[in-house]
Design a protein that fits this description.
Mean pLDDT is 84; it is low at 172-176. The strands form three sheets. Strands 1-2-3-5-4 form a five-stranded antiparallel β-sheet, with helices on one face. A two-stranded antiparallel sheet has the order 6-9. Strands 7-8 form a two-stranded antiparallel sheet. It has four helices and nine strands; from the N terminus they run βββαββααββββα. 25% of the residues lie in helices and 25% in strands. The chain is an alpha+beta fold. Belongs to the protein kinase superfamily. Keywords: ATP-binding, Kinase, Nucleotide-binding, Serine/threonine-protein kinase, Transferase.
């Protein structure tokens, strides 16, 4: 595999505990050589299946290229990438507060004032994505993280896609997305029905 992934910084780090596991890899807490806590998403490329490895590498390139362009207080910060011995590492801002899903599990129903504060930030993050023609496609409780200060961060852009135009109705028919990405219980009906979807979904 040629190294098409852009390395923002030469980050030296030590692997800590697992923060989460998903369909596309494992996220670890890392400590850098300068003492910074970071989140590191690692994906192993199976060298025994070159075609699958190439496809996975292409998907990761898309995720990294997208993350590089996003800078917003409610979007997880991107720090860089590396490829070493068939393992792709994506370095991101560490968010110690946990997910909204875990917050609800720990504390129960949220007060209306807190819920309104979180919802406003989620919508601001999504509005920023849409302004940049990006649809997340897997927005759910576990992909909405909370900083200790109460700031919401949207994470996990493995399923995200950048549209070629802003207005779905102005797109050609090829722009109507029909592939199923995301988590079923969090999907819009038109996604599950495969009837075509865009930003509103």
């Amino acid at each position: 595999l040629d190294s098409g992934l852009v390395v923002e910084n030469n980050i030296t780090w030590t692997k800590g505990e697992v923060l989460g596991r998903g369909a596309y890899g494992t996220v670890y807490c890392g400590l850098t050589s300068v003492g910074q806590l970071i989140a590191v998403k690692q994906v192993y490329l199976d060298s025994s299946d070159p075609d699958a490895a190439k496809e996975e590498y292409r998907r990761l390139q898309g995720e990294v290229e997208l993350l590089q362009t996003l800078q917003h207080i409610n979007i997880v910060g991107f720090l860089g990438t590396s490829l070493y011995q068939h393992v792709v590492s994506i370095f991101m801002e560490y968010i110690p507060g946990g997910s909204i899903g875990s917050i609800l599990h720990r504390f129960g129903p949220l007060p209306e004032r807190v819920l309104a504060l979180y919802t406003q930030q989620i919508l601001e993050g999504v509005a920023y994505l849409h302004l940049n023609r990006v649809i997340h496609r897997d927005l759910k409780g576990n992909n909405i993280m909370l900083m200790p200060t109460g700031v919401i961060k949207l994470i996990d852009f493995g399923c995200a896609r950048r549209l070629s135009c802003l207005n779905h109705t102005a797109c050609n028919s090829g722009e109507v997305l029909k592939s199923i990405h995301g988590t079923p219980y969090w999907m819009a009906p038109e996604v599950i029905n495969e009837s075509g979807y865009g930003r509103k979904s």
